[in-house]
Amino acid sequence: MHVHTYICMYMIDTMDVISTLMSKATTKIVYFCFLISFVSILFALCVSLPLKQRSSACMAIKTCDPFQPMCATSKNDHQFFYSQCEMVRDICLTGKDWKSDFLSHCNVRKL
Length: 111
Description:
single chain; about 110 residues; mainly alpha; 2 domains; 3-stranded antiparallel sheet; 3 helices; rod-shaped; transmembrane helix; Kazal-like domain-containing protein; transmembrane; membrane
């Protein structure tokens, strides 16, 4: 089962115990607090998972060539980068899927 399912099951069990011990007004407040914490946990998971996938692209900056100019393409968009490191940095920050292309496609002659 997924983490979300375990969290839901735990929260439902906890809420059943609490509702038997407290008044209705207090129970509503506790329900609201648990709902806020549950939404916060889901939000944290949703934000952190894409960052984990993007981190491999960010690690590539350690091995890039800072002196190699690059022409790159992503979904019919061409971009000239003054170095391979600049391209890797852009991949890391934006998540675009830049692939190396011929310099002539960026209207740049070989340097």
